Structures are given as C-alpha cells and as structure tokens.
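To close the chapter, one final illustration. This time we ask the reader to focus less on the individual chains and more on the assembly as a whole: which components sit near each other, and how the overall shape emerges from the parts.
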Amino acid sequence: MSLEIIESCVNCYACEPLCPNEAIYQASPHFLIDPDKCTECIGDYDAAQCSSICPIEGAILDELGVELNPPGSLTGISMEMLTKYQAAVEATYQAALAAKSG
Amino acid sequence: MDLPVINSSSEGAAGGGCDSHSCGSTDDQLDHLPEHIRAKVHNHPCYSEQAHHYFARMHVAVAPACNIQCHYCNRKYDCSNESRPGVVSEVLTPEQAVKKVMAVAANIPQMTVLGIAGPGDPLANPERTFATFRELSEKAPDIKLCVSTNGLALPDSVEELSKHNIDHVTITINCVDPDVGAKIYPWIFWNNKRIMGREGAAILIEQQQKGLEMLTARGILVKVNSVMIPGVNDEHLAEVSRVVKSKGAFLHNVMPLIAEPEHGTFYGLMGQASPTAEELQKLQDACSGDMNMMRHCRQCRADAVGLLGEDRGQEFTMDKIEDMEIDYPAAMVKRAEVHAQIAKELEEKDNKARASKAELVSIQSLKPDAPVTRPVLMAVSTKGGGVINEHFGHAHEFLVYEASGNGVRFIGHRKTTAFCEGGSSCGDGESALDETLRVLKGCEVVLSAKIGFEPWAPLEAAGIQPNGEHAMEPIEEAIAAVYAEMIAAGKLDAQPEQQQKVA
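The assembled structure is written out below.
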C-alpha cells in the first residue's frame, strides 16, 4: 500500500517535510515515495499529506494508479481550458521559431 | 520657472480623496515618516520611489513550496524569458543562495536589499528561508533582508522573523472579504488539510490580518501588495487599503493582474481582463486619500537581480558563480563608498528641490491670481540614476510623471517592446511602435536621451510631442522645464476637452 509521485511533479518540495513516515525523498528528475515506508497516512491523518498540499493535478497516484487530484480539482481549469492552454503554448512556440528563422 | 517636486503625502493627506497633494508619492513620499523608519527605507528600492533609481535589489529563489493556490499563478511555470512574480529559472539551496548574494553584492555595489519572495511562499519553506537569512545576517551584515508572503503562515513566523533582524515584510492581501477571496483562492493547506473555497479564503484573510498586526506591534515595516483584478476585487481594494492602514501597514502597492492564456493560469485561460494603465492609476489615486501608495513596482521575478525594471540574473547563474572568487570584506568597503556617494548625491538633490519649492511658494504668494494651468502627463525613458539617459528606441518601459502648477509627481511605469527590437508592422500583429503609442496614451510629451527620425512623426500624430533636448538631465527638473515652456507658449490654458483627455 503506497502512493506514487509521477513525472508531472514540479519538484516544489511542499510534500517532503509533511510526510509522517519520511517516505518522500528528492530524486532526479522528480521527488519519489519509498513504497516500503508509505502508509498513505492512515492512522496519522484523515487525508494523505502529500496529495493534500500537492499543487499539480495528477502528480500523485494511489495504489490503484488513480489520480488523487484529478484534472480541474485544484485549479478549476477544465479539460477544455487545458486544450486551449496547449494551443496557446504551441502558438507561442511557433511564433518564437518563426522569429528566430526570420 | 523652476518647479519643485511635490511633497505629496506629507501635506493635504488629511483632505482625503485625490487632491493634487495627497495622491502622488514621489521622492518626498517618506517625509512624514518618523526618522527611524526613514532610515530603514531610504535605500530600499521597493519602499522608496527615489531609491529605486539608484539602489538595486535581488531575490533568491530558495522557497519553492506553497501553501495556497491563487488563480493568477501557475505552479508549473519556469521560464527565463518571463518577468513576473512566481517565475524562476533555478531553485537554489540556502548555501547556493548565500553564495549568489555575496557574488552579486560584490559585483553590483548598489545592491542593498535581498528579498525572499518565492517562487512559492517563503514562510511555507521556513527551514530553507531562515537558513538563508541566518547565514546572510552573519556573512553580509550590510545587506537588508526582507521577505514577501501570502500571510497564511505569518503569525507562526513573526518570532523567527524578528530574530533575524528583518525590517521589511510584504504581505499580499487581495481582499478582506471571504466572498471576494473565494473568487481568487481555490484552496489553502491548513492544519494538515486542503481547505477549498470560501472557508479557506476566510482562514487566509484572518491569518493575514493577524500577522499584519503582530508585525506592526513589533515595529517591523509592512508593505501590502494587492493584485487588481477587474470585476473581482477592484472595487474592494479601497476598503483593503483603509483596513491595512488602520492596522499599521505603511505602504500599499496595488499591482495590475498579469493574465495571458499562454501562462496557463486560471485567470489567463478564463480570459479574465487585466486593468489598463489608466484604470490602475484611477484606483491608486482613489486609495491614496487613505494610504501611502507605491507606484513604481515592476512585479519582478522571484530570482530577479538588479535595479527595478532590469534583470541581470543571467550574469549570476550558479555555474558562473562557482567560478567567482569573492573577497567580501573588501567588497563591503567598496559598497560603503558607493552608498555614501549615492547618499551625498541624493542629499544635494533634496536640498535643491527644497530651495526651488521655497521659490515657487514665494512666486505664488506674490501672484495669487495667476491662472491655474492644467496638469500634463509626460513619459520618460531612463536606465536609472534619476536622469533621462535612455534612447527612445531602446526603452522597454517608460516612467510617467504628471506636471502641474503644484510641481512634478511620479505616476507609474508602462512596459512596452523596445522600438528598435520589435518587428515592423505587418499582418495582424501590433508593431513595437504601435504598442508604445498605445501604452503612452494620455501622455502629451515623451522625453528621451535621443529619439530617431522614424518614430517622430507617428508620435506627433498621436498627440505626443517627442523631446530629446534634455538628455542626461535629472528627470523632474527636465519635466518642470518642459512644463514651464508649455505654459509660456500658452499651451496650457485650461480647456475642458483637453483636461478630460489627460484626466
């Protein structure tokens, strides 16, 4: 029984000091949870501490691989808005490329 | 005629509202403060408008964790080409931060202030933040330390902050009403739980106000930052200003929301509007009857280095710092010399301003029936030092001043793309010159060290007179001189239409 941090982690350190089991450690390219130490905070807190402070939706999974903070749950940004965001990022990138070559 | 720089906040403030005396806050902004407080802020670029032309600041990004989410922030962001709060290129360990600060202090002796401002919340990273402060107060005692926080963890940190001789704390307070807060803060992390919506906002507000009172009770200077979000808290911020002033905050900095879709923030993606320069100025003026306002904030990055408005962070990346040999005791001697030189220069400037003010008062008392001339906004390009020393085409921002019969007061800065770096006008894109003309809306004169032939005619056509005759002159003196010329030429006889245009 253990939670898992995946690649969308932005290395903000917020979870690391909160873990009652010191199961979270800094690693490259992102923080990781030692599955032998993680108890999902059962017995210590009502909700797992790492996923309660994590600002990145989808970065922490439960033992079944389910996202503890699904898209839109933390930022209020819907999937539709996210698609728009990706388009805007792409447009900015293409404009920068065009400016470089032009 | 030599016009003085207005001592804005010290006079007429009792009148409230926005008479010409109470709303400005230029270099005499600090006159009404007790001597011990002035001594703390005279060389702090983020607390004194005058100081920001001469003294530099730096932020070290040692605090990546945050305990709240704001709708104008995207925690995924990391880009060296973006200049706004919360954005950094590399997070430093406290050891790296101390090394960087000493390297910058030795190379930029004008750097007087080290702030920790993120990219998360410094007080949500107490170990990393306080380790940095502890080390610096020992190794570099000539650097002022300050911190910027959302306030949630502030009451628990006040004791520790006062131990490290931290004189300046900035709290970002966007609201004092939880209903407004619910539209800005989707959640907070509090007592081991994530608390959503209004309930979280209410706790945050309570902690901010408590922290503010605890700090001012200890004599620690507090600046309050507020992000102006049209339709969300714009009408509410005048009340915020009143409340924080009554609790002892000494400066209020209302900043415009930054929200673009490509930032990936909630507000950016929602299409939430940012305020225009005019809307911002109107709100700052409305708040200024109650509060000393800051108007020169550049909303800098959590790893910015240099004068406000410039960022020399790329000169001090960790790989470059590793190779630098820093003799700090020697650097401290040089820094003291540079600071003394600037202090001398500022004192001379102040004496001159006082003398010309006395002169104006005597002229006015001789001619009580002299016609009242309308105020004029003028833009200036400068690289710092309080003089007009930047070419029009190189300017990434313009400082805007208002000249009137009462003198010259600083209004704010307006960012643009430098004309010489922008592409020419083609397709749907706005050219750099179009952008500059747009941001200078309302200004009637632009003063630069030099203005090229190409922008000259479009500026005139937009009703903005280009002026390159005051290169290297002190800003306020040059503006006063141009205003006097405009009076002499009969351009300022009060005309209701024109008054509206510049209001």
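Helices of chain A lie at 49-53, 79-101. Residues 72-102 of chain A form one domain. With these observations in hand, you are ready for the problems at the end of the chapter.
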